[in-house]
C-alpha cells in the first residue's frame, strides 16, 4: 500500500521519491575532495573565489554539498523541473532535494504534523553533509516553501541538536505578511483547472478563509498566523546560521500574491537586526514565482553570486540589484 501510494504521486523527471512530498536527485557527477590544508583558487563567470576550510576535506569545485528546494504551494513537477534542470547544469556535483507543499500543509496541518512528515529528509541531509564545513544552498519559494523550510529546520534541530548547515539562502516571492486578498488569490491558484471544481472550490475556500481570518484576528491574534510565524522564524538564530550567511530576496512589483514591500522589509530587518548580507532583486513585470521568465540570466547570476558570496567578507547590509547597478558582483552596502 505504501509503495503504491508513493508511485502514484507526481514525480519530477530524474528524481526518486524518498517519502511523500520529498524527492531526491543524486549528483550527476562525482565531486572530488582534498585535504583541508590545501587551498586553491577557482574562478566563475562572476567572481574570484578562494576556499580554505578547517574540516578534514573540502570540495575542489566549491559547489554546494546539497541544493535544497522547498517549492511553492501546489507547484507542478513540470514547473519545478525547470529550476532543478538549471541547478543541475550549474552544479552537477551537487545532489538536489525537493520538498513540495500542498494547500493542506498551510491551512489544516499543525507544525508538529508537518515536522513529523518531513523527518525522512533528515537522514539524507546528514548523509550528504556529514563534514564540519558542509553547506547547503536553500532555495525557498513563496509562503508554502518558506513555511516548509522552517518545519525542516525545526525537525533537523530536534533530531540532531544542531542548526541545519545552510551556506546561502534564496527567498523567491517570500516572505510576505497575512493579507486576506492575497490569501484568496493564492487559494484560487492551488485549485484544479476543472471549472466546476474551481467554482465550488472557491466558494468553499472563501468561506473557510474568511472564518480562519476572523478567528485569527479576533480570537487567536494576528501574530499567531502561520504566515506571520514563518516570517519571524526565518530570522530565528536558534534555527538557522545567520551571521555571515548571505541571502537573496527575489520579488516583483507585479506579484498579486505577495506584496513586494513586505519582502523588501524583511530583507532590511535581516540586515539591520542580524547583520545578514541581503541582496534584493526586484523585478517589475513578473508574476508570483515567475521571475526567472522575465530575465533568466539575471536570475541565475544572482543565485550563483549568492552562493559564492558566502566567501566574501562584506559585512551585513542591503544590496539593491537595480539601484546599485548590480552586474554579478557584490556592491557597496548602504
UniProtKB/TrEMBL annotation:
Keyword ATP-binding on entry: no
Transmembrane annotation, as ranges: 199-222
Domain of life: Eukaryota
Xref: InterPro entries: DUF829_TMEM53
Primary subcellular site in the record, as a coarse category: membrane
Pfam families per record: DUF829
A GO term from the CC aspect: nuclear membrane
Cellular localization per UniProt: Endomembrane system; Nucleus membrane
Keywords carried by this UniProt record: Membrane, Nucleus, Transmembrane, Transmembrane helix
Protein's name according to its UniProt entry: Indole-diterpene biosynthesis protein PaxU
Organism, as annotated: Pseudomassariella vexata
Amino acid at each position: 500500500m505504501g509503495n503504491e501510494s508513493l508511485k502514484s504521486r507526481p514525480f519530477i523527471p530524474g528524481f526518486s521519491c524518498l517519502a511523500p512530498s520529498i524527492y531526491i536527485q543524486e549528483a550527476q557527477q562525482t565531486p572530488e575532495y582534498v585535504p583541508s590544508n590545501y587551498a586553491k583558487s577557482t574562478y566563475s563567470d562572476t567572481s574570484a573565489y578562494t576556499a580554505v576550510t578547517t574540516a578534514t576535506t573540502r570540495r575542489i569545485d566549491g559547489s554546494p554539498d546539497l541544493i535544497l528546494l522547498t517549492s511553492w504551494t501546489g507547484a507542478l513537477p513540470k514547473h519545478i523541473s525547470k529550476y532543478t534542470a538549471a541547478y543541475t547544469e550549474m552544479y552537477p556535483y551537487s545532489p538536489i532535494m525537493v520538498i513540495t507543499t500542498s494547500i493542506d500543509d498551510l491551512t489544516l496541518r499543525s507544525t508538529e504534523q508537518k515536522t513529523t512528515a518531513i523527518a525522512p529528509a533528515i537522514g539524507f541531509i546528514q548523509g550528504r553533509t556529514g563534514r564540519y564545513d558542509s553547506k547547503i544552498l536553500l532555495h525557498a519559494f513563496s509562503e508554502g516553501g518558506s513555511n516548509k523550510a522552517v518545519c525542516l529546520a525545526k525537525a533537523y534541530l530536534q533530531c540532531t541538536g544542531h542548526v541545519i548547515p545552510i551556506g546561502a539562502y534564496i527567498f523567491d516571492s517570500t516572505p510576505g505578511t497575512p493579507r486576506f486578498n492575497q490569501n484568496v488569490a493564492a487559494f484560487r491558484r492551488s485549485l484544479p483547472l476543472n471549472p466546476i471544481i474551481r467554482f465550488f472550490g472557491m466558494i468553499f475556500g472563501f468561506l473557510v478563509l474568511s472564518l480562519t481570518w476572523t478567528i485569527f484576528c479576533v480570537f487567536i491574534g494576528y501574530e499567531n498566523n502561520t504566515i506571520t510565524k514563518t516570517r519571524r522564524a526565518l530570522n530565528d538564530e536558534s534555527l538557522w546560521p545567520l551571521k555571515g550567511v548571505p541571502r537573496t530576496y527575489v520579488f516583483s512589483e507585479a506579484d498579486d500574491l505577495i506584496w513586494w514591500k513586505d519582502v523588501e522589509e524583511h530583507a532590511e530587518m535581516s540586515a539591520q537586526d542580524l547583520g545578514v548580507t541581503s541582496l534584493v532583486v526586484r523585478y517589475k513585470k513578473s508574476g508570483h514565482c515567475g521571475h526567472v521568465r522575465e530575465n533568466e540570466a539575471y536570475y541565475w547570476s544572482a543565485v550563483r553570486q549568492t552562493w559564492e558570496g558566502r566567501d566574501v567578507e562584506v559585512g551585513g547590509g542591503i544590496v539593491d540589484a537595480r539601484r546599485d547597478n548590480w552586474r554579478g558582483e557584490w556592491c557597496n552596502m548602504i
